[in-house]
Design brief:
The protein has eight helices and four strands; from the N terminus they run αβαααβαβααβα. It has 158 residues and is mainly α. It has a single domain, classed as Rossmann fold (3-Layer(aba) Sandwich), CATH 3.40.50. The longest helix has 15 residues. It binds adenosine-5'-triphosphate (ATP), (3R,4S,5R)-3,4,5-trihydroxycyclohex-1-ENE-1-carboxylic acid (SKM) and magnesium ion.
Length: 158
């Protein structure tokens, strides 16, 4: 989910494992030569979701990679299946108030334009079952990014 800390925690885990971090949002922007807000504005969400699936499938075969996906990649079951096949998946969760607090002041998330509180609540409701496929779910509320990374690594290493 947006603002739960995927990019931040992904970087910490990649550094700890000596892996390469691929941030899917950055990869989509690189492949498309446009920012995500530009893509939403000029081509719409469906176009962005196609680009997101294509970018995901282009990186999943790589080894030694921590992939920080976009928050909405789970909207397509095919993407979830590809992530499970391609690796080990951690889903980060947070409540609406924490997410709003974290994303406030960042205009880079087009789906949150307008009433951010209402949008976050609505998206959380729509996606509440979408993260259950993950190998581990981690509540990030009340945990620092370092603590979240350590928790994920403990599960990953078993
Ligand atoms: N555990 C945490 N506690 C408090 N703040 C956090 C935590 N993890 C990340 N943050 C902060 O929350 C904000 C959003 O984090 P980040 O960009 O990593 O989220 P994201 O899940 O990648 O979001 P998106 O899906 O939009 O890419 C950043 O300002 C980051 O510093
Ligand atoms: O949760 C979402 O649907 C999104 C999250 C971001 O990471 C971006 O991928 C984009 O803003 C959409
Ligand atoms: Mg991110």
């Amino acid at each position: 989910m947006m603002g739960t800390g995927k990019s931040t925690v992904g970087r910490l885990i990649a550094d700890e494992l000596g892996y390469t971090l691929i941030d899917l949002d950055a990869e989509i922007e690189r492949l498309e030569g446009k920012t995500i807000p530009e893509m939403f504005e000029t081509a719409g969400e469906h176009y962005f979701r196609e680009a997101e699936s294509a970018a995901l499938n282009s990186v999943l075969h790589q080894r030694g990679v921590v992939l920080a996906s976009g928050g909405g990649a789970v909207l397509r079951a095919d993407n979830c299946e590809a992530m499970k096949r391609g690796g080990w998946v951690a889903a980060l969760t947070a409540d609406a108030a924490s997410i709003v607090e974290r994303v406030r002041g960042d205009a880079n998330r087009p789906l949150l334009a307008g009433d951010v509180e209402e949008k976050v609540r609505q998206i959380l409701e729509e996606r509440k079952d979408k993260y259950l496929f993950a190998d581990v779910m981690v509540d990030t509320v009340g945990r620092s990014a370092d603590e979240v990374a350590a928790h994920i690594l403990a599960h990953y290493r078993g």
